Each structure stands twice: as C-alpha cells, then as structure tokens.
Protein: Alpha/beta-hydrolase
Organism: Lactarius akahatsu
Amino acid sequence: MQSTQWKRLGVFAFLDTGPPPIHQKDYVTLVMVHGRGGTADFFSRLLPLAGKLGARVVAINRRDYPGSTPFSEEDRALLFSTTYDTPAASDHADHYMKARAGEFYDFLSQLVKSEELPINSIILAGWSLGTAFVNSFLAYGPSFDLELWGAGLSQHIRRVIAYDPPSLAMGYPFPDGYYFPLNDPPISQEKEVFPSWVTGHYADGDTLETLSLRNALDEPSPTITRMSHEDLASTFHEPPTLLDGSDTVIQKSGVDRGVFSRLREAALFAPQHSEIAWPNVEFRYVCCDRSVWLMPWGIWSFGAEIDQVRKDGKRIRKHSVVRMKGANHCAHWDEPERTLRLLLSDAPSDINVQDVAKL
C-alpha cells in the first residue's frame, strides 16, 4: 500500500499517495478539489486504493482550510467587495476567481516539475462547489500558459472533471419553487439541517415535478449519519461556511454576480470566430443519480445548454457525461473503489457514459 502524507506546495497543503509502487512512465495523477466545508480528508478512502489501480492521488486543501495559506486582508477585502451593490462588484468577483485559478495553475506547474509527471497524465476533479474552482482553472489556464509557460502545462492535463456539482456551482439559475436550506433556516441551524440534506439519498424522477426537494430516503441513511466523530472532525472545517466565511461569500457572489456562469462558458465554449483553447483537454460531467435535487437539475441544465449551443453552431470543448447509478453526493466516501475507477478511467464500464450530443 502506498503511504500517504501531508505535503505543502505553493499555497496548498495536500495529501499525496506518491507514484504507484509499480508504475509505468505514463501513470495517471488524479488531483481532487473539495467542496464547501469539506477538506481533503473527505477523499481519504480513495487514497489507499490508488496503488492497486496503478495511479497517484493528490487531495488539496483549498485556501482557508487546514494547512493551506489563509487569505490575506487584501484577499478578504477583494472577496467582500463582491457583495457590495457597486458596478465593480462583478469585476471583483471575476478577479477573485482568476486569482484562485492562478494558484491551481502554479501548483500543478510545480507538481509537474518537481515530480516529473508524464505528459497527458493529470486529471483535475472538483467535487461539489469545488467544480467552480476547476472551471476557473480551465477558463483561465490557457491565458496563463501563454503568459508564463508556453504550451507546457496544457500538455500534461488530460481531463477536467465536474464531480457531482450542484447547479449553482455551474452557474445555472435555480428553478421556480426550489428549496435550499441555507436560504431557509437561520445560519445557526446549518449544522443540523444542511449536512444531512446534502448527504442523503434521493429517489428523483426525470422532471422538475418529480424531484425530491426536501425529503431523503430513510435507507440508505445520509452519509453524515454513518460517520464517526473522528471522521467528522477531520473531514469538515466550519470557518469558511460561516456567514462571513470565504466559501459562503463566494458561493453567493458567484451566483449573484454571474461569475460561475461566466466561468462555465469560458471553460466549455469558444468565443465567436475562435478555436477552443487547450482542445485536447476533455471536460467530463459526473452526476450521481441519488443526489439531492441540485445535482440532477444541474445535469439537465447542462444538457439543455449543449443542445442549444450546438443549434447555434458554436464550438464546444470535447466532453462527456457520466451517470453514477445508485450513488449520492458522497460516493467517494460510501463507494470509494467504484468512484476512483470512474474518475480515473477514460471509459468507465460500470456506469452509463454518453456524449452530451446524444442527450
């Protein structure tokens, strides 16, 4: 078994299994980015399986999470300026997310150099709210390539994965009549309401009318209810989720200021009369079909958008959709081996994979 240890590179603390014990020169490195309130430890059940599958797994703690560089007063001033009712608020939100993209770009560049990672070997996966951050990397990365590194880093990125993103992280508007507990009870009740709601299993239909907005299935029970106190302490970090926490603020500004939508469009579509930047980098959308309604709503919105963009004749990044049957939002905790195989594979065989054009 590979030993896993905390390391530090640039502004990030991260868990790293290191190269697989017996590996070819072209082994794959999966870089995982956590969501709102989670930590890299939430991916800990994937790590012991990496060597078995001939891969390397790196799990990053984003800024404001344990071991990584806290945001400076200047960073926080920029972030909070996105909440002000000023003409500059949207530009400030864009600038904030571009800075986060630059941090991921620098991290991956240093990882490639220090570890001599093979060409076409990095898969960058953002889970939940983490999708907005990997979308930012894909949106801004090509411009960093031109400014700093030539075509170097793009040669190493195989795929970017949106792993079970909520619709808001992709920048899609909520449907009428939606329920979102963070907008409902006082923020002080989040510990009791939101985690169970978002980690439950849901029997959703194929239409908005048949989505289960509030009530999860009794069995399987929500993932959080089956975690030990020790697991909860290591996998959840509260400060960024508080009312003035960095994830709470950028989640709201990302939606209200339209930045998450702009990141999705820049990552997936070429501007008029332009070619797709980093055309060999695939975008994969992974949807767990027992997740809370935000996730199926997101994949439906994605499919509808792709259909419309194709009708409009716009250029679209190479992409695929993967539906993970029977899994909820915490598949990496409940079904780590199946999840890791899905994230690593170029053509997963135990789930439905379809090109978005066929939706």
Residues 5-358 form a domain with the Rossmann fold fold (CATH 3.40.50.1820). Confidence is low (pLDDT under 50) at residues 354-359. The chain has one domain: 5-358. The first helix runs from residue 73 to 81.
